[in-house]
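[Primary structure, fold]
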Amino acid sequence: MKLLVVGAGEMGRWFGEVVTRELEADGLDDVDLAFADADSGVAEATADEVAGRFVPLSTAERFDAVCVAVPISVADEAIRTHAEKAERALVDVTGQMAEPVAAMAEVAPERERVSLHPLFAAANAPGNVAMVADQTGPVTDRLLDALRAAGNDLVETTPEEHDDAMATVQAGAHAAVLAFALAAGDVPEGLTTPVFEDLTAVAEQVVGNEPRVYAEIQETFDGADEVAAAARRLAEADEETFAQLYREAGKSLQTEADE
């Protein structure tokens, strides 16, 4: 199988490396993995590190499958630019689903098409991978089986359900964690609480990554405004209103757990 990964960053590398490893473990000896990136140096380095090969973005070479793993802001353009290089299957791991799924269907209606969103940083793999299997076939089936064989759980969803969920799961959660970190004062040793320590650990995990990625998530998915509004309601509440909001928060969490 010839596989091109457009975007040699964290997720592109993860996808190419995991899929190639599992396909070869399953007995497929002729896996040909290539990387292309707007930064050719990044693509060359990634290809060297995972035993792939480098190709320029402008290549006219054709592949069995093309995986687009670029930032959300350029996903639509990348799909439209590189879809013609996919002879059989087109996949994206860009993080949003509505626009990529629509773009793939428009430019590659006869090809197999799957949208994936790993809900973890590559360093924390394996984990849950959101999946919209728009049009599957032999090639995408093998790619999806490879992800499963690596220990990932593929969670079927719709573009709308996924993008709505990311407003809370990503944009809202990140905004709340970053706001806590920005508002936190110096705390003397020994005066912390378990809740504070847990929140600090989460904040350290969030701020240890690439800020551009988090900025794109905030721009793409609504969620931060709701967090800010909720914080303002708490800050301005009197004792009775605060107790009401406290109970409301508990009920909200219980509802999510029941679902």
